[in-house]
Amino acid sequence: KNDGTVWAWGRNGASQLGDGTNVYKYSPVQISNLHGSTILYSKYVHSFAQKADGTVWAWGLNTSSQLGDGTATTRDVPISIEFGIEPPPTTDEDTPYSTTYNITDAESGTCGLIITMASSDPNLFTDSNFTYSCNADIYTLSLTPTEDLFGVATITVIGTDPGGLTVSDSF
Question: Max alpha carbon distance in the chain (Å)?
């Protein structure tokens, strides 16, 4: 509706209406947790919504993990779906870890950034154990832990343009 609420009705055998039941609805019922939705999608036995804040919500049949919540549990009310959650990268002792970044800067041209690294544990990852290469603004970074040490570190990758402006990302 124009007021930002979401309403549903009809078949509901797979809880695809999102009202907390699996009972057929002969008239519209308001669906909770979805106020402010801007995009709605329903496909027979499951439904999705995207709110104005960018969050994605899903509900309904989920026997083949089609809702994207990491389970095969059918959901009778909308649940928030998390994106981009990955386990932290790991590497074995003395084994290089490589990752890639696509970084562009109009002022400095292709591969014109200086890439540096900062570690929350400078003993585990030192500047001398960090290298990078670039091809068409795709930077490949390689980090090798210090020999015979183990531990956990947050790595911050910093791109600096010739004017001193920076961009960073951590993992």
Answer: 69
Q: Which residues contact 146 (CB under 8 A, 6 or more apart)?
A: 123, 124, 125, 126, 129
Hey, where are the domains in the chain?
Answer: 6-81, 97-170
Which amino acid belongs to residue 28?
P
Can you give the pLDDT of all 171 residues of the chain as single tens digits?
A: 888 889 999 999 998 998 999 999 999 999 988 888 877 888 889 899 888 888 889 999 988 888 888 888 999 999 988 776 555 677 777 788 888 877 777 677 788 888 999 999 998 888 888 889 998 888 888 888 888 887 888 888 888 888 888 888 888
Is-contact 4 50, C-beta < 8 A?
Answer: no
- What's the rounded Cα separation, in Å, for the pair 80 and 82? 6
